[in-house]
Amino acid sequence: MRVLVVGGGGREHALAWKIAQSPLVSKVYCAPGNAGISDSAECVPIAAGDVAALADFAIANDINLTVVGPEAPLMAGIVDLFEGRGLRIYGPSRDPARIEGSKAFAKKVMQTSGIPTADFQLCDSPQAAREAVQKHFAQRSGYSGVVVKADGLAAGKGVTVCSTQEEAMAAVEDLMVQRIYGDAGNQVVIEERLIGPEASIMVVTDGHNIVPLLPSQDHKRALEGDLGPNTGGMGAYCPVAMMPSDLVEKSLETIVRPAIETIRELGIPYRGTLYAGIMVTEDGPKCIEFNCRFGDPETQAVLCMLETDLVELLMGVVECSLADTKLRWRSGAAVSVVAASGGYPGEFRRGLLITGLEEAARQPGSMVFHSGTRKTEQGIVTDSGRVLAVTGWGDTVRLAAQNAYRTMDSIEFEGKQLRRDIAQKARDLNL
Ligand code: AMP
Ligand code: GLY
Fold it and tell me: How far apart are CA 343 and CA 209, in angstroms?
């Protein structure tokens, strides 16, 4: 088979790396890819959002399966376009992909399906948002705060968790008046702040059958101790200590399955990866968001644990033959640590030389996934906020983390920023 991976981040590096290991696959392309992905796939200079050019490429190059990494092409309708042209592609079509593209649609699905989630209000003007914030703080004194979310996409950064009314008002001002994320702030969601450990539950589904991946946990805040602003994700590990199988099962039954059924009843079955962001509250698991794709950096951890052929799994969705699929997993755990550019998620510099990659590649029990890197005559340089992620694996979370950090320490670039506390709670418990 000839496979095309769409995207150019760490998640796509993990996908291309795992796909290239499949005995079913003779050739992997990645568009646009990055410096690291070129070790696993031939990179082609087509942007992930240029869906028409990608379809032309797939036809011209006899691609048998296209796997879409990021959300933007899914929301731009890449799946509808490919299927319309008779091409096989993995991912949800445009309509169900709104589960991620519009928080308002996601909340509607949650309400219709009775999915446990935070109380919320959708506001389409700064005045309405300010009133919602005031109402939350005045009437719901039991709440530990509110969360202000841009309705549109802001690369995981349009969310502010606020303990005080002043913080919430400032977040509304930034999104709706200063419009720091542009049109993403046309509408905002003001919601109850939930308290508890978080987990990412990713499933692969053909719209009927559900194959869960190992539960994972992202570390969204920029700084150690879960401080600082939200980012796209600074590290992840799996499986998650606080998510024993009964809680995973409960999350599947109360959150994931109802969403997939409701979307199917709305007309177009959800096929692809459905990612539920879960918070395990005192009242049980509650859904904080859905994504229509694999998580980043969760995928860099989860795929290092997967023993089953990923291509067989993805083809099960494309060919609607997922029933009875059982995945095989390596025992132990995987920990993925992100190195970001200094200043991320704020302003940062690009084009800084990365050293130590060859030594890192020789370290056992780990793999370096590039998120934003570029090849130049001088060598491989930084090219985005999140630069790369190192995943380590081992019999325990502690050993997996040791492998990840040891390899990470052999890689340097100016301003390199990382969190030393990925999976810390599980490491402390010696899990
Ligand atoms: P989202 O983009 O909706 O996933 O939000 C990003 C991050 O903000 C989540 O991973 C949580 O850490 C945090 N967050 C979002 N919603 C809530 C909530 N209702 N209560 C507490 N934290 C939240
Ligand atoms: N790691 C969070 C996400 O992929 O949205």
Answer: 43
DSSP codes, 308-319 = S-HHHHHHHHHT
198-318 homologous superfamily: ATP-grasp fold, B domain (3.30.470.20)
> CATH 3.40.50.20 spans which residues of the chain?
2-94
**75 Cα to the center of ligand 1, angstroms:** 21
Ligand 2: centre distance to CA 127 (Å): 30
Q: Where in the chain is the domain with CATH 3.30.1490.20?
A: 119-192
Give the model confidence (pLDDT) of 248-307 as tens digits: 999 999 999 999 999 999 988 999 999 999 999 999 999 999 999 999 999 999 999 999
The residues lining ligand 2, judged by C-beta closer than 6 Å to any ligand atom, are 156, 218, 233, 291, 295-296, 298
Identify the nearest ligand to the CA of 103 by its number: 1
Cα 288 to ligand 1 centroid, rounded to whole Å:
6
The pTM for the full model equals 0.93
Q: Which CATH number fits domain 333-428: 3.40.50.1110, 3.90.600.10, 1.25.40.20, 2.40.50.140?
A: 3.90.600.10
| CA–centroid distance, residue 139 to ligand 2 (Å) | 32
Structure tokens at 287: 């859904």
Closest to 298 (Cα-Cα) out of 233, 242, 344: 233
Q: Does domain 2-94 have CATH number 3.40.50.20?
A: yes
Atom of ligand 1 nearest to the CA of 195: 21
Retrieve residue 243's tokens: 């998510």
Using the atom order of ligand 1, give the atom closest to the CA of residue 291.
4
Angstrom distance (rounded) from CA 158 to CA 154: 5
